[in-house]
Write a structure and sequence with these properties.
Layout (H helix, E strand, L loop, with lengths): L10 E4 L3 E7 L2 E3 L17 E3 L4 H16 L9 E7 L5 H8 L17 E6 L4 H14 L2 E4 L15 E3 L4 H15 L3 E7 L2 H13 L6 E8 L7 H17 L4 E5 L4 H8 L14 E4 L23 E5 L7 H7 L11 H8 L32 H26 L3 E2 L2 E2 L11 H5 L2 E3 L5 E3 L10 E8 L5 E9 L9 E3 L27 E5 L8 E5 L4 E2 L9 E2 L4 E3 L6 E3 L1 E3 L6 H26 L4 H4 L3 H17 L11 H33 L12 H26 L2 E5 L6 E7 L3 H24 L10 H24 L3 H32 L6 H7 L1
Parallel strand pairs: 2-5, 2-6, 6-7, 7-8, 9-10, 9-11, 11-12, 12-13, 27-29
Antiparallel strand pairs: 1-5, 3-4, 13-18, 14-15, 16-17, 18-19, 19-20, 21-22, 23-24, 25-26, 28-29
Helix pairs in contact: 1-10, 2-3, 12-14, 12-19, 14-15, 14-19, 15-16, 15-17, 16-17, 17-18, 18-19
Length: about 850
């Protein structure tokens, strides 16, 4: 049904003192929605009407009606309008008609002061706006674009148009903030193959990577044309399969209209074997409207349920729906669009056409939303504001004329004989509030200063839909309020079960794991590896694991840090109690041996090998056992220097006594040899000298240690994972090992002398017992070094205490137990006669 001929005039004209021109995109042809240069007579295809775009015509008419009825704006001046369709005869033809005498097509000719064109509002698509700008720029007529923003290659070049849409950079910023808000880092992109599409793709390449967002796939689509529609559709099948198979749940669709997306989502109905549709979050660019062509009305739109889009910030304009409901459009003879709209919107015909007959009683509110919306759409809102912008600029001119007799560019301004180029001066500095309270003004680039609303599309089973505002982008707001969105207000596609959709290449790495990039894949694709020992990660998708503060340690799952508890070898724990009991037991046993020896101090066994040395050795062993108690309990400023120095000096005395007793045995034997000069060395004076000299050397070493780098209380944060070990820092490790080394030297000397003297004849040769005792002593302390170095925390202290007790116990047992046995249980053997008999 081809309804439009070349001679047909598709226009809507309302006379007035000043005329606002309009270029809309209502009439189209099947398969090509964006041809703006060729007149219709070059096509023989079936025509269709973009029924939802008819609201653009009505929005312009409604705005002019409001202004003419409002005597506060432009009193004594009547606005009119002249609206043409951009396709029926081509954009350039339509604009030249607007610039001609109203009744005939004569460009560059004008007479009279009525129907004076002052500005043009249009168009919907960038191509339309571009062709308008080329012609209107020549005539310096103000152009207010209401659709996709128009940008010239040279933005510094003066241009005649004003964008009723904010800078597209703001929309791109909003898109990035939206993706970052939901943490959608793996997105698919479908962009129209156009100049604006090229700019959008360049923005993605420049900005997405900086914000850690990866593109799962990027495809460009061309406008569907009848000549190669099946070739293009075959390419779209491939695109559809890629989109549905991709694990990217957020898909960005960049185009000025929705028709290509509608085709893309309809493909499963055309070919078997196509991937089943999956729930996706479609993110659409500014001012996208859910429009259905006549042949698309039966197509399911549930796949768009939960989609998100951007729209110029707006509020419902009061009175517009009432205007639509009460105006009898069919009686408006000046409206050349209404019959074409009516026939396709209600699927009826006039003038005895076959099929259903239009009665004229049909109501707009009965139409589904994808055919015609009663609420003012984003594009219509832009047209509404554009009309008011022109009116307020004209009012400013009128005000200057009446009050100041203003001169503009060297000429006196006369509102009745206004030249279109004179309007620029007043539009540039324009600022006013529209009927819903929104401020309307242009920036230095002649782009609207405004923000965007974030719209959630809710599709109902009966194919009706509702747009819900769920957030906004306000570039003029404080930084923390530029982007706001209400997650709870969003309705997602039913496949997501109303939970927040995820769109990532790899599922999030849970706390306790970090990301490792997959070779050959974008940085958004990674593997999750557990944190190494001693590190943690408390958030999802961390790039690395971190060390806890010194006073904390990673939890078992390595997803948090727990405070370390302080610990030391105390009397309140089994280990500390056991060692303390052991030390006290041996000290009491030593005291018992000492008491026994004191009781039997006149017996030969006790008097043998220097009784005073025996008493000194027992007292030093008693103190050795008791010194072990200094190592138990919380380290203090007094106990730390005392524990090591006391232990080392007392042990040196004990080992010196053993050395002196051994040398006494050797010298005593040598003194029995006739003519020996060793007799003068035998006696208590030599033994005392050995004990004092050896002990004083160790005392000197300890004094140097205390003066240069004394032990002090410290906290070991690192040795034990879950504990802060309170310990005594040795101060100088060198001095500590010097002390141990000197004791070891004394022990080796005692062992060597005792070993050499073990077979000397005597009634009671003590050397062999000293040999065994020093063997035990050296074995204990040789084992101490590796055991001490391999232990951590309080167990290092426990090893040292055990070594003290064990080595002291070895001396006590090997040297004194045989003597105690004779003294207590075999007193007959402890008699001079018995000893002499054995000798």
């Amino acid at each position: 049904m081809s309804w439009i001929g070349y001679s047909d005039v598709i226009e809507y004209f309302q006379p007035g003192d000043l005329i606002i021109g309009g270029i809309v995109s209502l009439i189209s042809i099947t398969g090509d929605m964006n041809n703006f240069r060729q007149p219709y007579d070059s096509w023989n295809d079936e025509t269709v009407v973009l029924t939802n775009n008819y609201q653009h015509v009505l929005a312009l008419a409604f705005a002019v009606k409001e202004i003419n009825e409002n005597h506060q704006i432009l009193p004594n001046v009547t606005l009119g309008f002249h609206i043409y369709d951009s396709f029926a005869k081509g954009t350039c033809h339509a604009i030249m008609v607007l610039l001609s005498q109203q009744t005939r097509f004569i460009p560059n000719y004008k007479c009279g002061i009525q129907n004076n064109l002052v500005a043009v509002i249009g168009g919907l698509y960038p191509d339309t706006s571009f062709y308008l700008a080329m012609v209107l720029g020549t005539y310096k007529v103000s152009q207010l674009t209401y659709g996709s923003a128009l940008h010239l290659n040279d933005e510094n070049e003066p241009h005649p148009f004003y964008n009723m849409v904010p800078n597209e950079g703001y929309q791109q910023m909003g898109l990035l903030l939206l993706l970052l808000h939901f943490r959608w880092t793996w997105v698919g992109v479908i962009a129209k193959d156009s100049i604006n599409g090229d700019k959008f793709v360049k923005m993605i390449a420049a900005q997405f990577t900086l914000r850690a967002i990866c593109v799962a796939f990027l495809r460009r689509v061309k406008t569907l044309k009848r000549s190669d529609i099946w070739h293009l559709i075959n390419g779209m099948f491939e695109l559809y399969n890629i989109a549905m198979k991709s694990n990217a749940n957020a898909l960005i669709f960049y185009d000025e209209n929705i028709f290509i997306l509608r085709w893309l989502l309809y493909l499963p109905e055309l070919q078997e074997g196509t991937v089943e549709p999956k729930g996706k979050v479609w993110i659409m660019t500014i001012e996208m409207e859910l429009t259905s062509l006549l042949y698309q009305r039966s197509w399911d739109i549930q796949v768009l349920h939960g989609a998100l889009s951007f729209s110029v910030h707006s509020n419902e304009v009061l009175g517009f729906q009432h205007f639509l409901q009460t105006k009898n459009l069919l009686l408006t003879k000046e409206d050349g669009f209404v019959h074409y709209f009516w026939e396709q919107a209600f699927e009826c015909g006039f003038d005895n056409k076959p099929g259903k007959i239009c009665t004229g009683t049909e109501k707009l509110e009965d139409l589904p939303g994808n055919v015609f919306e009663m609420s003012m759409t984003g594009h219509s809102y832009n047209i509404y504001n554009a009309v008011y912008a022109v009116a307020h600029a004209l009012e400013a001119i009128q005000s200057y004329q009446s009050k100041h007799k203003a001169m503009v560019d060297g000429r006196r301004v006369n509102i009745q004989d206004l030249q279109p180029w004179q309007l620029h001066h007043f539009l540039e500095g324009l600022s006013f509030n529209n009927s819903v309270g929104a401020e309307i003004s242009f920036d230095r680039n002649r782009e609207l200063r405004a923000g965007f609303d974030i719209i959630n599309w809710v599709i109902f089973p009966n194919q009706s839909f509702h747009r819900v505002k769920v957030g906004k982008l306000d570039p003029q707001a404080p930084p923390d309020q530029v982007f706001t969105i209400h997650n709870e207000a969003i309705t997602w596609h039913k496949s997501f079960n109303q939970s927040l959709p995820r769109s990532v290449c790899t599922d999030s790495c849970h706390p306790g794991y970090s990301k490792r990039k997959q070779e050959g894949e974008p940085f958004c694709c990674y593997d999750c590896i557990s944190c190494p020992e001693g590190k943690f990660s408390s958030q999802k998708d961390t790039d690395d694991c971190y060390k806890c503060p010194e006073d904390q340690y990673p939890s078992k799952d390595q997803d948090s840090c727990l405070f370390k508890h302080k610990t030391f070898l105390s009397y309140e724990e089994p280990l500390g109690i056991s060692l303390a009991v052991l030390a006290v037991f041996f000290s009491m046993f030593t005291a018992l041996v000492l008491g026994t020896f004191l009781k039997h101090h006149d017996t030969p066994i006790v008097k043998a090998n220097n009784r005073n040395l025996t008493y000194t050795l027992l007292v030093s062993l008693l103190l050795c056992f008791l010194s072990a108690l200094l190592f138990i309990g919380q380290p203090e400023k007094m106990t730390c220097p005392l524990r090591q120095t006391a232990f080392s000096i007392i042990f040196s005395i004990a080992v010196s006594c053993v050395l002196a007793k051994t040398l006494t045995v050797v010298l005593a034997f040598m003194a029995t040899i006739p003519g020996s000069r060793m007799r003068k060395w035998v006696g208590s004076r030599m033994a005392t000298s050995i004990v004092l000299s050896c002990s004083l050397i160790q005392t000197g070493i300890c004094a140097v240690w205390l003066v240069t780098s004394s032990p002090f209380p410290d906290a070991d944060m690192n040795s034990v994972k879950e504990e802060i070990v309170l310990e005594c820092n040795e101060g100088s490790v060198t001095m500590f090992y010097c002390v141990l080394g000197y004791m070891g030297l004394l022990a080796i000397a005692s062992f060597t002398v005792a070993f050499l003297a073990r077979k000397l004849p005597d009634s009671f040769n003590e050397a062999k017992f000293i040999t065994f005792s020093m063997l035990v002593f050296c074995s204990v302390w040789l084992s101490f070094v590796p055991a001490y170095l391999s232990s951590k925390g309080k167990y290092m202290v426990a090893v040292e205490i055990f070594s003290i007790v064990a080595s002291s116990g070895g001396l006590l047992a090997c040297i004194f137990l045989p003597k105690c046995y004779i003294v207590v249980f075999q007193p007959k053997l402890n008699m001079r006669e018995q000893i002499m008999r054995k000798r």
